[in-house]
Amino acid sequence: MSAELTLALTKGRILKETLPLLAAAGIAPLEDIASSRKLVFDTTMPGVRLMIIRGTDVPTYVRHGAADIGVVGKDILLENGAEGLYEPLDLGIACCQMMTAGPAGWSPGSSRVRVATKFTRIAQQYFAEQGIHADVIKLYGAMELAPMMNLADIIVDIVDTGNTLRANGLQPLQKIADISSRLVVNKAAMRSKHEAIQAIVDAVGLAVEGQSV
Ligand code: AMP
Q1: Which atom of ligand 1 is nearest to the CA of 144?
Q2: Which candidate in 133, 135, 154, 169 could, as Cys together with 102 as Cys, close a disulfide (CB 3.0–4.6 Å)?
Q3: Is the CB of 31 under 6 A from ligand 1?
Q4: Inter-CA distances, 126 with 111, 121, 156, 165, 168, Å
Q5: Domains in the chain with CATH codes
Q6: Rounded mean pLDDT of 112-134?
Q7: Residue 2 CA to ligand 1 centre (angstroms)
Q8: Which residues form the ATP phosphoribosyltransferase catalytic domain (predicted)?
Q9: 178 lines ligand 1 (CB under 6 A)
């Protein structure tokens, strides 16, 4: 049985906050996602199915039309680009900030700054805009370690409470961007399946408004 609309959802903390919004919009998985090893789920809305994948893969599936709609963090859209995607809704969930962070009291010297981050494109662009010469070093995790181990002077990372930074002797410095999860839509699908997709965008939009009241 082929579904008419596929939604690609980011697994993890974003998924936990996405499911109540979708439920309020009339889309609930027919099985408990948390206790299943499946990656695709039919839903209470006929013809609509959910895929549960890594956030970095969501724009890829939606851009290629393998999914019609996606839920993904703005950090990933900024880092990987949003070509081929519409971004009709800010879901107001998984809110955090993209920031620079460094050892307490750190200030830029006259020379170049070494920056460790998973978000190399965001970092390159930010420091270029600031007119600062940055050597950006790509890491895949635990960015907080880099200043302590003298791999880098500062980092660029997602900050929510700041607890992870403080636990590793770092403090937030400059905000680069506000981050939250976004609904994205494949541009071609937005035309060819306009009615069905717009109905979902509208229903999720109402759920978002309800959530913020
Ligand atoms: P915190 O200690 O609360 O500042 O959280 C910091 C870490 O949690 C970051 O390094 C991120 O890996 C992760 N994190 C926090 N909020 C989010 C979010 N909304 N989306 C993705 N990762 C997040």
Answers
A1: 10
A2: 154
A3: no
A4: 17, 8, 10, 20, 24
A5: 5-94+180-211 (3.40.190.10), 96-178 (3.40.190.10)
A6: 96
A7: 36
A8: 54-203
A9: no
